[in-house]
Amino acid sequence: MATRSTRSLLVANPTARTGRAGKAIDAAMERLERARLRPEFFATLPDGATVPKLADRLEHGDIGRVIYLGGDGTFAETAKGIILARERYGVDIPLGMLPMGTANDQGRSFGIYAGVRALDRNIEIIAQGIESWLDVGRVETLDEAGEVIAQDLWFDSWGVGLSAQILATRNRDKVLVAKVPVLRQIYRDRVIYVRAGVSHFLRSLIKRKRFAAELTVDGERIEYASLTDIVVKGTLLFGGDWIFAEEGKPDDGKFEVVIMQGHTDWARATIANHKRNPVTGDDMAVLGLAKKERPIHQGKHIEVRLFRPTGIPALHSQIDGEEFRYADHYRIENLYHHLRIIVPESPHWV
User: Fold this and answer.
1) Chain centre distance of CA 294
2) What is the C-alpha to C-alpha distance for residues 204 and 209, in angstroms, rounded to an integer?
3) Which domain, by its residues, includes 73?
C-alpha cells in the first residue's frame, strides 16, 4: 500500500558517533527534499523522552511517514513512538528506514542496506511507499513471586545467555574505546563485537557456564538440562550475518526460539548458519561439526524459566542488542502486525 504524499519526519540523534551523524542527517534531509518527501527533522532526546515526545508530534496528523536514521536504538525509539501515537491518539504512521548501524538486522532482513552510500537507494524505497507488516515482541521480566518488574517492546530479537553477555561486553568496550582517539579509529563496530565474542566464548569453554531451562511455547512445555543460549527471533538475520531459522517470517504471528545446547553447537551454528557460508557439509564433518538438527520452536506466547547452577550469577539478557533486566523468569508475546514498515518491492536479505 502506498503512503500518503505528505510531510516526512526524520528522526535521528545528531550527537551520535562523534558528530558524523550531523553530516548524514544533512545529506538525508537534502535527498528527501529532492525526492519531494517534505522532510522535517526530529532530534532524539535523552532519558527515554523521545518516545512520548514523538507520539505527541504525530498527534497533529500532518505526517505521512516517519523515517529513522541511525542504529538499532534509534529504530526502537522511533517505532515505540509510532506505536504510542496509535495507542494514545489513533494515528497510525508507517516507518521508513535509513539504517546506519553495523548489524542492521531489521533493514537487511528486508533488503535495505546501511550507511550513507545507501541513502539514495533507501530514499527511493521510501518514496515508492510499499508497506509491509512487522510483528513486535513484548517481553516481561518477573520476580520470584511472579510479579512483573520490567517490560518493554522489541523488534528484532530477545536473548539470554552467552550472546547477551557478548553484547553487554561489546557495549562496555564501545564506551571505553570512545575515550581514546587512536583506538576509536581502529577498534569499533564489528571489531569490538568479534573481540567480545571470542573473549567470552573462550572463557566460557573453561568455566562451562551452562544453565537449565523450562520453556512453555503456546502451552507446550519443553525442558533442557544444559544450555548456553536462548534466542527468540522476530526478523530473519541475527548479528547482521547469521540466519538461525530460515523458516522464520517477520509477519506470521509467531517467533522462532533458537536453542544453543553447548559450545560445539555454537561453533557449528556460527559457521554453518552464516548467510554467505562457504563451508560444505563434508568440511563441517572433518572439523568435527557435522550438521545437527537444532530444535526450533515457534509460537506466539513464550515463557522462559531459568535454573542456574550454584555460583553462577544472573544470566545476561538483551533486546535488540541492548541490555535488558536480568532475571530467571520471562514472558514473551508476539504482537501480530503491530508496526507498518516501508520496504523494497521485492524484499530479501542482503
Assistant:
1) 22
2) 6
3) 7-129
